[in-house]
Amino acid sequence: MAPLNAKSDPLWIANINSADQIVLGGTRAALDTLLRNAPAAGARDLTILDVTVASHGRLQAGTARAVADALGQVQHGDQRRAYFANTSGRRLAHATEKVIDDLAQAVQQPVRWLDAVRLMPELGVTTAVQTPPGHVLAAITAHETPGVTSIAVDDTGLDNALRRAARAAIGT
Q: Structure pTM?
């Protein structure tokens, strides 16, 4: 059996979502090998996601360059809100160029959601709203940081999400 990280069939960490949820990306052959071998290594749940692009890995280096080039053509205003970087899980404030770089590089770097979520309460974040699609990140946020109100627009609708976020902001 070929190693999982063979040059012809790479496998990589694409997302670190929570303490017990890591998303891997790779070729179909690498993922099939993983499915066969990971349970013996202690993996409890393996799900192949139905996605058409192998994002958040080195195969997207060309895409990252194209995104960086495109973002370089856009006029940027001053950053007015804090931004949690996908590539580091750290907060970027008053760092427009770093935000632009993170947006470009995120397609080829792992998403560090767990790091960002754990940082939120330390920075005084009380409410997180996940915009469509889905609700997985809101559920992870609720699990990892119970003191942060987590809202998924797909679950509540936009109007209800806005009302809940406003109530959470004023503490009612």
A: 0.80
Chain Cα centroid distance, residue 30: 22
What is the domain extent for residue 126? 120-172
On whether the CB atoms of residues 72 and 96 are closer than 8 A, the answer is no
Q: Is residue 163 part of a domain?
A: yes
> 119-126: long-range contacts (C-beta < 8 A, 24 or more apart)?
119/84, 119/89, 119/90, 119/91, 120/84, 120/145, 120/148, 121/145, 121/147, 121/148, 123/82, 123/91, 126/168, 126/169
Q: For residue range 35-52, what is the model confidence (pLDDT) as tens digits?
A: 998 899 888 888 888 888
The closest alpha carbon to 106, from 53, 148, 171, belongs to 53
In a domain? residue 128: yes
